[in-house]
């Protein structure tokens, strides 16, 4: 049975999967001697903000410039928590797309076990992905039992505090340089009619904010003990209590933030209505689309200006098994193009993320992207939560923090107790 809310039985698929696997082996051999014929490739993803749409358009452009294939865009609004179950349902229901976005990590484990996703190992070895993907842990997150099942396409990090320079100028206070200064500036922002902290009220956003606070305020060692080692004693201890106290500060500063979508929260900064936002580096795409300049119109604080460390999570594309030789050949073309150096540069400059290739030229990178590249080069990184916990466990964590930010009567102490219970039962 599948998790993620997509409950499907796979007994009816077993014979079909054996047939498809046999066919894929044969089609791989054929692909070595013949070019893929033109094919329509439906690609599903959850990139629907302005900046995200501009970025994904670079993939479509590259595919159609370099091949005779056609990109059929399958954007699903609502983010991963909404889109992912739909994508999974299509694959388990016998209506697979040609390619689909997930976060690289543990989200696709059961689909792989069911034989619903293609093995890309031959292509990865032929093109030397292990030599160019940096850090190589990103490729490891695409690998199960020694076989590669996805192509990592970017490095996204959550550990950023974005600040509206205009909001602080209107409030008559300096732009903060760290989390403590930001908290101290909140009363001045409120007096000026600003929302101190903009947060969309979707569970993954509030949970993500807590993860950032845990890594940045308390430190990466504690984060790893909780999310990687599943240490319930640490999760219930005094260090994690500091993160819950910081989360309590955050929810008080976000009381008047009533938007749902992250891009609407970002827009509050762009328009000077809010002071700050804890959000991943994908927010840069929307800043750029609005014509804002890093260091002039907005300020970025990696690690909230406390611990400059980044999570090396991000996005990857998986390729469902399909019974169509033209599609299977074209899937490999798309996978190769997505990881090509020129595509990596074009896509990530628009997306606000960092490329997974360590051999590309990013002269056009802005101040914030350069900060991220410097941290990445220093090795101050930790794995993303999707690489450390199952989706079932993360859903429980998301639900907890959705309630925590919505219900001021849920104390930090009570929330921490429930958090430790989730960690204790995590896989």
What's the arrangement of secondary structure elements?
Blueprint: H1 14-31, E1 40-45, H2 50-66, E2 70-75, H3 80-92, E3 99-103, H4 109-113, H5 121-127, H6 129-132, H7 137-140, E4 143-144, E5 147-148, E6 150-152, E7 160-164, H8 165-171, H9 179-191, E8 195-197, H10 203-218, H11 220-227, H12 232-235, H13 238-253, H14 262-270, E9 274-278, H15 283-289, E10 298-302, E11 310-311, E12 315-318, H16 325-339, H17 341-351, H18 367-378, E13 381-382, H19 391-406, H20 412-424
Parallel strand pairs: 1-2, 1-3, 8-9, 11-13
Antiparallel strand pairs: 3-12, 4-5, 6-12, 7-9, 7-10
Helix pairs in contact: 2-15, 2-16, 2-17, 8-9, 10-11, 10-13, 10-19, 13-20, 19-20
For this structure, what is the CATH homologous superfamily of the largest domain? Periplasmic binding protein-like II
CATH class annotation of the largest domain: Alpha Beta
Percent helix, as a range, is 40-55%
Number of strands: 13
What CATH calls the topology of the largest domain is D-Maltodextrin-Binding Protein, domain 2
Radius of gyration: 22 Å
Low-confidence stretches: 1-35
Structural class: alpha/beta
Percentage of residues in DSSP E strands: 5-15%
What would you say this structure looks like, in words?
The protein is α/β, with parallel strands linked by helices and 427 residues long. It folds into 2 domains: 11-156 and 313-376, Periplasmic binding protein-like II (D-Maltodextrin-Binding Protein, domain 2, 3-Layer(aba) Sandwich), CATH 3.40.190; 160-311 and 389-424, 3-Layer(aba) Sandwich (D-Maltodextrin-Binding Protein, domain 2), CATH 3.40.190. The chain is built from 20 helices and 13 strands. It has helices at residues 14-31, 50-66, 80-92, 109-113, 121-127, 129-132, 137-140, 165-171, 179-191, 203-218, 220-227, 232-235, 238-253, 262-270, 283-289, 325-339, 341-351, 367-378, 391-406, 412-424; strands at 40-45, 70-75, 99-103, 143-144, 147-148, 150-152, 160-164, 195-197, 274-278, 298-302, 310-311, 315-318, 381-382. A hairpin with a 2-residue loop joins strand 4 (143-144) and strand 5. The protein starts with 13 loop residues before the first helix and ends with a helix. Mean pLDDT is 88; it is low at 1-35.
């Amino acid at each position: 049975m599948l998790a993620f809310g997509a409950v499907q039985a796979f007994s009816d698929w077993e014979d079909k999967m054996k047939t498809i696997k046999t066919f894929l082996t044969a089609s791989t051999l054929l692909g070595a001697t013949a070019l893929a014929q033109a094919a329509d490739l439906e690609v599903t993803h959850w990139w629907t903000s302005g900046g995200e749409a501009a970025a994904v358009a670079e993939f479509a452009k590259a595919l159609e410039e370099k091949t005779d294939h056609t990109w059929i865009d399958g954007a699903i609004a609502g983010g991963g928590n909404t889109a992912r179950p739909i994508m999974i349902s299509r694959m388990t229901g016998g209506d697979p797309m040609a390619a689909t976005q997930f976060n690289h990590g543990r989200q696709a484990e059961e689909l792989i076990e069911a034989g619903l996703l293609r093995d890309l190992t031959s292509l990865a070895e032929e093109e030397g992905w292990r030599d160019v993907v940096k850090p190589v842990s990103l490729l490891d997150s695409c690998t199960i039992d020694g076989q590669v099942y996805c192509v990592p396409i970017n490095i996204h990090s959550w550990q950023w505090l974005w600040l509206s320079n205009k909001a602080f100028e209107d409030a008559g206070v300096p732009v903060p340089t760290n989390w403590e200064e930001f908290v101290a500036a909140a009363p001045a922002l409120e007096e000026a009619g600003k929302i101190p902290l903009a947060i969309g009220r979707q569970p993954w956003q509030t949970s993500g904010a807590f993860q950032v606070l845990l890594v940045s305020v308390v430190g990466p060692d504690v984060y790893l003990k909780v999310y990687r080692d599943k240490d319930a004693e640490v999760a219930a201890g005094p260090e994690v209590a500091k993160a819950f106290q910081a989360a309590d500060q955050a929810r008080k500063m976000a009381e008047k933030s009533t938007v749902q979508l992250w891009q609407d929260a970002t827009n509050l900064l762009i328009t000077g209505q809010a002071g700050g936002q804890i959000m991943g580096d994908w927010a840069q795409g929307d800043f750029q689309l609005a014509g804002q300049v890093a260091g002039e119109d907005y300020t970025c604080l990696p690690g909230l200006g406390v611990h400059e460390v980044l999570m090396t999570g991000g996005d990857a594309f998986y390729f469902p098994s399909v019974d169509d030789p033209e599609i299977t050949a074209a899937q490999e073309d798309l996978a190769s193009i997505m990881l090509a150096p020129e595509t990596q540069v074009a896509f990530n400059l628009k997306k606000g993320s960092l490329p997974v290739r360590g051999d590309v030229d990013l002269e056009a990178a802005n101040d914030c992207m350069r900060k991220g590249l410097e941290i990445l080069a220093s090795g101050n990184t930790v794995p993303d939560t999707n690489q450390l916990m199952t989706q079932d466990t993360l859903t429980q964590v998301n639900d907890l923090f959705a309630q925590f930010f919505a219900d001021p009567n849920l104390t930090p102490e009570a929330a921490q107790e429930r958090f430790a219970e989730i960690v204790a039962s995590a896989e």
